[in-house]
Amino acid sequence: MGGSRQHLLTDFLKHAGWAEAEQAPLSGDASFRRYIRLSQNGQRAMVMDAPPTHEDVRPFVQIDKHLRLLDFSAPEIMAEDETNGFLLLEDFGDTTFTNLLAANADETELYQLGTDVLITLHAIDSETAAPEWLSPYDDATLRNEAALLLDWFMPAHGLNVSTEIRAKFERIWLKLFGHVHAGPRTLVLRDYHIDNLMRLDNRDHVKACGLLDFQDALAGHPAYDLMSLLEDARRDIAPDLQARMKERYRDALNLQDQRWDDFQTAYAILGAQRHAKVIGIFTRLDRRDGKPIYLKHIERVWRLFERSLDHPALSEMKAWVDNHIPSDKRKAAESNPS
């Protein structure tokens, strides 16, 4: 961190009453944010350092307060400096689902908790869960995300992305998104997976699940976050576990017959959209940002993408992919040497 930003952080901590705290930076993520754990007089807190030139903490603050109002476990905001991009947050500790699973925690129990959070959220009426101020997960956003496959992955493999090829790709997606928008609407956290979920002691039911990394939340279809949890870009999840969690969700919300068929169609469409986006993002993280660590996941995401494309509703998109991305190219491109 540059000297001027360190000075701003020092001032922020002074005004927040944490000037004397020991600081322990945490390892970074795929964004420009960084986190610093504070310890002072037996108390702990977390600083989010989000440089305003790259990040905006205001959406995090807004969604955090909304989630807490809905009685979910988002971190308490203890102090904020939105202008300079600093937040002092409640420290949920290190018990992410990822860390717990690495320590052989009960996989089914954790995925049940993550699924139950979504069941509870999606049982809340739409106007309350996704109020008017929440931006929609609209066609432009969904399309532009899916197009990251064309913007980054295909050029990395030297594949042709002509104006005509791009236009057909976008036309197919826009037809598919019509199915999604016809469904119910809720708060979509958008990055709902085990890295961003935490098991909190001394809290009951769904409040035992701490929520992180929700600043990009939008109003959209409830299938998105369940798909994000169960079709994880970074981890293989057994088909049986996926099926049981989907059944748990279906039964709890009484999604029968046509409602469940419509949900599964939206689930497949949004799965394909997200997997296309993630393949592009992981390639961009290497090519643009010098973070090749994410390339190891691309073959897994391609498997997930191909499985989503097998849904009958996605036959036209499957044909587009088969025509323009040969099967032997469905892997990470060689890492950018620069």
Structure overview:
The longest helix has 31 residues, at 257-287. This protein has helices at residues 3-16, 58-69, 97-102, 107-122, 126-129, 139-146, 148-156, 163-181, 223-230, 239-252, 257-287, 298-309, 315-324; strands at 22-25, 34-40, 43-49, 77-81, 86-89, 186-188, 197-199, 209-211, 218-220. By secondary structure, the chain is of the alpha+beta class. The protein starts with a helix and ends in a 14-residue tail after the last helix. The strands form 3 sheets. It has a 5-stranded antiparallel β-sheet with strand order 1-2-3-5-4, with helices on both faces. The chain is globular and about 60 Å long. It is built from 13 helices and 9 strands. α6 (139-146) crosses α8 (163-181) and α8 (163-181) runs antiparallel to α11. 35% of the residues are buried. It folds into 2 domains: 3-89, 2-Layer Sandwich (Phosphorylase Kinase, domain 1), CATH 3.30.200.20; 97-329, Alpha-Beta Complex (Aminoglycoside 3'-phosphotransferase, Chain: A, domain 2), CATH 3.90.1200.
